[in-house]
Design a protein that fits this description.
The structure is a homodimer. The longest helix of chain A has 26 residues, at about 125-150. The termini of chain A are far apart. Chain A folds into two domains: about 1-60, Homeodomain-like (Arc Repressor Mutant, subunit A, Orthogonal Bundle), CATH 1.10.10.60; about 65-205, Tetracycline Repressor, domain 2 (Orthogonal Bundle), CATH 1.10.357. In chain A, about 75% of the residues lie in helices and about 0% in strands. Chain A has helices at about 10-30, 40-45, 50-55, 60-85, 90-110, 115-120, 125-150, 160-180, 190-205. Chain A is built from nine helices and no strands.
């Protein structure tokens, strides 16, 4: 790739180049934040001209939104889809949490745009915030459904408040990220797992000893 | 205050000016982050010269650390000290959480440097990160002690893991901040309170119905 051969946007090659730019942008965004993304820095990394990078996105905002979408896709691939192979109910919910914990553990080194992005954009309305919040909402909705399914399957008690339990689970992940990444605690990971198991045990249907 | 009367550092007047600069810097840091602080912007707000502001701190880093200390002091004043008026044990622990929740609710509009700062500095070692992490550690230590006292007083079960319970409580606060501030959820506040009460109920000593 060099500046004398500008990418053609709709060709297969153009799509490949765009995907490669988004990959590089995602690495940069997890390190520097979505607001740390610059077309110039990406052009350097990709050994392309700024206008070459710009041609694929049209604006920095569009680039940021593409990064959010890519992060969303990877999150689904790593956390959500593999859990669908587990039986509905508690086994799937446990696997969802375990996949989420594993991903968060990786992000203890690399950063997480759902967390850093929330801080960057919580007071900046606009399309990037909307893309990021929308992506998080989709995931939180999937988590709540997994909790509800565990109730429907008779694994968790029928009076479980799925939204409250999802909120508590979200809290464990946020505390894991905070205490492991910022406070360098090596106890955060076992605590998050024990916290989750305590939540499950507290809500098991009477007949269950899963 | 104008630039023709540079503040004298060690006089009472100098101390007042320094405190006023830190106040303004704290407002700026909760909005823009600690890394968003600039001597220039502060000088504008204070109607002082840049060198006038600089004379009080010597470096931007020292200014950032002063802001962390001021945030710490206010956190103690609002969250920690008022709870000491409650009896040791569960009443004090409940009041600590309630004060923390109230403070977090205010910060849903203004931002919290313990949360935004963690994202800004989790990959930036140095004195500002150390000041911030040290301040959070002091608070987490106070929280763990309040939990342990509730065990010692016979309010919570003797097998309670104070560090784990503190981690779970921290998670509720982080989820409250995230879901209320970033996702604009009006349910986050009641969920955080219900989550805390569930944690307490799950750990009450048998004889307790506090």
């Amino acid at each position: 790739m060099n500046t004398s051969n500008p990418p053609i946007r709709h060709s297969a090659k153009g799509q490949q180049t765009k995907a490669a730019i988004v990959d590089a942008a995602l690495v940069l965004a997890t390190q520097l934040g979505l607001e740390g993304l610059s077309i110039g820095a990406l052009a350097d990394i990709m050994r392309m001209s700024k206008s070459g990078v710009f041609a694929h996105f049209g604006s920095r905002e569009e680039l940021q939104i593409s990064v959010v979408r890519e992060f969303h896709n990877r999150f689904e691939q790593e956390v959500f889809f593999p859990a669908l192979r587990c039986p509905r109910g508690l086994p799937r919910l446990r696997q969802l949490f375990e996949n989420w914990v594993r991903r968060t553990s990786v992000e203890i080194d690399s950063g997480c745009i759902y967390i850093s992005g929330a801080v960057e954009f919580d007071d900046r309305p606009g399309p990037v915030r909307d893309a990021l919040a929308g992506s998080v909402e989709i995931w939180m909705g999937a988590l709540r459904r997994a909790v509800s399914q565990a109730v429907d399957e008779g694994h968790l008690r029928s009076d479980v408040d799925a939204a409250l339990l999802s909120f508590e689970i979200h809290g464990l992940i946020l505390a894991l990220h905070y205490e492991a990444r910022f406070l360098n605690s090596d106890q955060a990971l076992p605590r998050a797992r024990r916290g989750f198991e305590r939540l499950m045990q507290a809500h098991l249907a009477q007949a269950q000893t899963v």
